[in-house]
Design a protein that fits this description.
24 strands, 22% helix, five-stranded antiparallel β-sheet, 37% strand, 413 residues
Length: 413
């Protein structure tokens, strides 16, 4: 009897369970359908514009092509183009539209395919939107930049540039390293077997690489010596320091001599005091008595120490792969100054004179960056201070972690 009751109870529990399961299963699809029907997918956007219902035409600006040339092909009226030109003032100069740059035209998905937006890509990261809707206006925008940390290494066979290419790296990285080590490595004297290890950022826009970002850390082995560089920011300013927290850069002297006055400034168009014609004067003339000592404004190698026509007795010093200076109209050279000699900052390399084409004793001092003359009076001398004491502990912790990563990077075989 007891067994019959037990069996009956178990059967009842089974029936209730089956009913509940059936009820859940029959209702589940309608529940899921409600969720799917209410789901609102994210709209597809380009340049911050929803493009789901638009047709996009991509193109490249052709030589001598203007905004008007492009838009008239897409049926935009001349009156609208004129309004765009007026509305773009103060936002974007239409004369800056360059051949070879990309653009997109967004049109309505109808039989007329009416143009609604014109987007000009000024650079890989910035663009200009010309809104062609009822309220015509122009604005600028920027694409999101993704930064990916990369590691690379290489061994010098002929040049740093070629080593970068051989390892499939962006050659821009070679320029970055040349600038970082400008004061510590003589890139005109690197040897076969010199090598480097680098941790750096690569920049991407919409998944496509657009260039090299910051170099975070590197070590360059030159003539058997390791030169470390770590990027560190303090007081919202970043620079490179070695493993001892010392700056990799050096500063220049403000002037190469003690002078009484500046008799002529840097100019792209100056009336020549002798020839009486206008021509560039890419230097600063310091008036000083004949025989006044002239000093090297920074460490470097003498590349010219001879008479150079209108420049008279001239000394040229290559300070690094970026900077060089010239000292013109010298009366004579300093002791031991000749081509190929290494000089130090403050060393006397000559004396004020009036050789060459000159109206009187003075020093014509010239300063070059990457081979281009710049005004010596406006050159911002690179900082030479070490990491500030209050940031030193943070720097050493960072440098220690990056040092371990650098040493773990293997050189190519």
């Amino acid at each position: 009897m007891k067994n019959k009751w037990l069996i009956a109870i178990l059967l009842a529990i089974l029936v209730v369970t089956l009913l509940l399961t059936f009820r859940y299963l029959t209702r589940a699809p309608s529940f899921l359908t409600e969720v799917e029907e209410g789901y609102d997918p994210e709209p597809v956007t380009r340049y911050g514009i929803p493009v789901d219902s638009l047709i996009m035409f991509d193109g490249v600006v052709l030589p001598r092509e203007t905004l008007s040339n492009i838009l008239t092909r897409y049926g935009v009226s001349l009156s609208t183009i004129d309004m765009l030109a007026r509305r773009s003032r103060g936002v974007f100069d239409l004369r800056r539209i360059r051949a070879g740059n990309s653009y997109s035209v967004l049109c309505l998905n109808d039989s007329l395919q009416t143009a609604r937006y014109f987007i000009y890509e000024e650079s890989p990261t910035s663009f200009v939107v010309f809104n062609l809707t009822d309220s015509v206006y122009v604005y600028t925008g920027a694409k999101d930049i993704e930064r990916r940390v990369k590691e690379t290494s290489g061994i010098i066979e002929s040049s740093l540039w070629n080593a970068m290419i051989a390892e499939g790296n962006n050659p821009q990285l070679a320029l970055e390293l040349s600038d970082i080590y400008a004061w510590t490595v003589d890139f005109f004297g690197i040897q076969r077997g010199d090598n480097y290890r680098v941790i750096y950022e690569m920049l991407y826009v919409e998944g496509q690489p657009i260039g090299v970002g910051k170099v975070l850390a590197s070590v360059f082995q030159h003539r058997g010596n390791d030169y470390y560089a770590f990027y560190f920011e303090q007081d919202d300013k970043g620079d490179f320091f070695d493993e001892q927290a010392n700056s990799l850069r050096k500063t220049f002297l403000k002037a190469p001599l003690k002078y009484s006055r500046i008799s002529s400034h840097f100019s792209h168009r100056r009336l020549h005091p002798v020839h009486r014609v206008y021509r560039p004067h890419h230097g600063v003339d310091y008036a000083a008595p004949a025989g006044t000592p002239v000093m090297a404004v920074g460490d470097g190698v003498v590349t010219i120490a001879r008479y150079r026509g209108a420049n008279g007795n001239m000394v040229e010093i290559r300070h690094n792969s970026v900077h060089k200076t010239q000292y013109l109209h010298l009366s004579r050279y300093g002791k031991g100054i000749r081509e190929g000699v290494r000089v130090t900052q403050g060393q006397v390399i000559g004396y004020v004179g009036s050789t060459g084409t000159s109206t009187g004793p003075h020093l014509d001092f010239r300063f070059y960056e990457h081979g281009t003359p710049v005004n010596p009076l406006t050159v911002k001398s690179p900082p030479a201070e070490p990491v500030q004491e209050e940031y030193k502990e943070s720097f050493l912790i960072l440098a220690d972690s990056l040092l371990s990563r650098l040493r773990a990077i293997e050189l190519p075989e």
